[in-house]
Amino acid sequence: EVGEGELELALGFCAEPRSGIVCERLLVEPAVLAVGTGHRLASRRRPVHLEELRGETFALVDPRDGAGYNRAVATRCREAGFEPRVVADPHGPMAWETAVRMDGCVGLTTRWAAASTARDLRVLELGDEVGFPLQLVRPAGPLAALKPVARAFRKVARDMAASGALARV
Questions:
Q1: CA–CA separation, 43 vs 41, rounded Å?
Q2: What distance in Å separates the CA atoms of residue 124 and residue 122, rounded to the nearest whole number?
Q3: Integer Cα distance of 92 and 81 in angstroms
Q4: From CA 160, how far away is CA 149, in angstroms rounded?
Q5: What's the pTM?
Q6: Which of 147, 156, 127, 128 is closest to 7 using CA atoms?
Q7: Distance CA 51, CA 146 (A)
Q8: Distance CA 159, CA 37 (A)
Q9: Taking 90 as the threshold, does the pLDDT of residue 152 lie above it?
Q10: How far apart are CA 79 and CA 17, in angstroms?
C-alpha cells in the first residue's frame, strides 16, 4: 500500500487523503448503476435516476479497502434526497461484487471500474450527473523523491486525463 511504502504510486477510486499520502484528482468519472442479471432493473433500457433507488439496498466495499467509496455512495444518495439502505457488514475483497451479483443489491460504480466485475452484471446509465473521482495516490513529500518510472507514469496519467484519453480507456 502507498501509505506503508509498499507502492510508490497507485490509481485510486474515491481514495481519501490521510497521513502520509496525497490524493491527486485526475478526473471525475461518470457513475453507472450495476445490478445482477436477475435484478428487476436488469432489462431496463432507459436511464435510472438515483431517487428511483430509494428502496434498494446498496452494495458497499469492505471499509478497510474503500471507506472513501462507501462515504461517496452515501453522499450521492443523500444528495438525491434519501438515506441509503446498505449492506450491514461488507467484508472481504469481493463484498461489493457478491452483494450485486448474488444478493440483489444495486451498486454505484464507473465504466472504468466495472470492467473487472462484468460477469453476471448489467450496467445501466444513470440519469443524474453523478460521478466518482479517479486519483493518483502517492506518498506525501516532494515529487522529486519519486523514482523516475513513477514520475513518468504520473505524467502520462495526468496528460491522458487532461486530453480526455483516460476517460476512454
A1: 6
A2: 6
A3: 30
A4: 16
A5: 0.85
A6: 147
A7: 44
A8: 37
A9: yes
A10: 22
